[in-house]
Amino acid sequence: MLNSGISVLVEGINLQRLMLGLAVTVRIALISIILGSLLGVFIGLIRSSKSKVIGFICRFYLEVFRIIPVLVWLFIIYFGVTNLLNIHLDGEVVALIVFSLWGAAEMSDIVRGALESLPKHQMESGLALGLSFWEVYRYILIPQAVRRMLPGAINLSTRMVKTTSLVVMIGVIDVVKVGQQIIERSVLKTPTASFWIYGLIFVLYFIVCYPLSKWSKNLEAKWEN
Amino acid sequence: MEINWAFIVSSAPLYIKAAWLTLKLAALGIAASLVIGLLCSVVLFYRTKGLVNLVQGYIELSRNTPLLIQIFFLYYGLTKVGLTMSENTCAVLGLAFLGGSYMAEAFRGGIEAVSKSQIESGLSIGLSDLQLIRYVILPQAFAVTLPSLGANCIFLLKETSIVGAIAIPELMHVTQDLIGIYYQTFEALLLLVVAYLILLLPLSIGLTWLERKVRYAQFGN
């Protein structure tokens, strides 16, 4: 029974279709990681400013995205905002918006943590040595901060890749949706289709995420001292 | 934009019921993942032969795959090879599978924070392995671990939003239904957000407080 079912993976163009679905998943993840990181670094930098108002706004932004689950955000934009503004947004666009904003919120906290962990006297020492404000940033603070935040940032990327699996709930044809279509089409001929297809998707996600988390762990170990 | 308050009032009981279910599933999932996490961290600590690779493999699998796929595989996949479970069982198992590795990492961090000399001293005054865990490691590791355990609990509670995908009538599923049946999109989403805020805001504030306490205990500021 089990042995006969596995052929569903390679039947017809099933495997190609799953790979195309995976490409959609990876595309969404990649674009939102890039946009989220850029925005997150920017927010993290301005959060270190002394202004109480800016600090409060950034903190509020972070908490709002932390407390409400990402799936709820997808629903709010996909159903709520489109309804309110009477516009149509493609599921993939909604996913990009939500994941970028969420990623930026998490990223800003990583950046803030890295900057705050640097001893204050480094800036003063640098200035005392005659470096300019920007030279201190360029040669002293940023190289150290990058080391401290890169493992966290890569970990965040892994989380974002995993979270892209939710886009199936707002009608994006990603690897999960393609899998469901294949299962529905072949369930009469191959009753075990869902076991094999979901098993394969499970493995596919692992193949994408594992190298990332391994990389992050290695960097962390390397830069611990 | 007119808000249909009557609809909100009449739907509120549905959300209360769904919120209870969400809490119940999360509590069971968290309890199970605490047990799994503790067992895994003990195995990793003692480097128990044969089990270490198994535990490490499990942690990697669980951390590098999405909960949605884990649950789909449990619910739709395993039933086809003869292992049929109710959707609630699948949800709790999925949460436990996912949360176990996160809890294990949290415990590991705590155990590593207990200094080597204490463990060696404990052994040299004749404590057994179990006594060492019970009287030396756990009390100290627990305090250090508490914030990350709390963060994991909030994480798992939020992850329950996904189990609606296997037709469990929790908050997301109820919302999806109300939007689909009555088209009261705005009201349904409002109730959803309020429900999650009521569940998560106190926990999040509590966690911040806890982090400050533990930090104070460790560093004194």
Structural class of chain B: mainly alpha
CATH topology of chain B: MetI-like fold
Q: What share of the residues of chain B does DSSP label as strand, in percent? A: under 5%
Largest sheet of chain B: none
Q: Which parts of chain A are unreliable, with pLDDT below 50 for 5 consecutive residues or more?
A: none
Which helices and strands appear, and what pairs or packs with what?
The complex is a heterodimer of chains A (225) and B (221).
Chain A: H1 2-5, H2 14-47, H3 52-67, H4 70-85, H5 91-117, H6 121-128, H7 133-163, H8 175-186, H9 193-222
Chain B: H1 5-46, H2 51-63, H3 67-77, H4 87-113, H5 116-124, H6 129-159, H7 171-182, H8 185-219
Helix pairs in contact in B: 1-4, 1-6, 1-8, 2-4, 3-4, 4-6, 5-6, 6-8, 7-8
Question: Please, could you describe this protein's structure?
Answer:
The complex is a heterodimer of chains A (225) and B (221). Chain A has 225 residues and is an all-alpha fold. Helices cover 79% and strands 0% of the residues of chain A. Chain A has a single domain, classed as MetI-like (MetI-like fold, Orthogonal Bundle). Chain A contains nine helices and no strands. The longest helix of chain A has 34 residues, at 14-47. Chain A starts with a helix and ends with a helix. Chain B has eight helices and no strands. Chain B is flat and about 70 Å long. The model of chain B has no long low-confidence stretch (mean pLDDT 90). Chain A binds chain B through residues 1-2, 5, 63, 66-69, 71-72, 75-76, 79-80, 83-84, 158, 162-166, 168-169, 176, 183, 191-199, 201-202, 205-206, 209-210, 213, and chain B through 1, 60-61, 63-70, 72-73, 76-81, 158-159, 161-162, 165, 172, 175-176, 179, 185-186, 189, 192-193, 196-197, 200-201, 204.
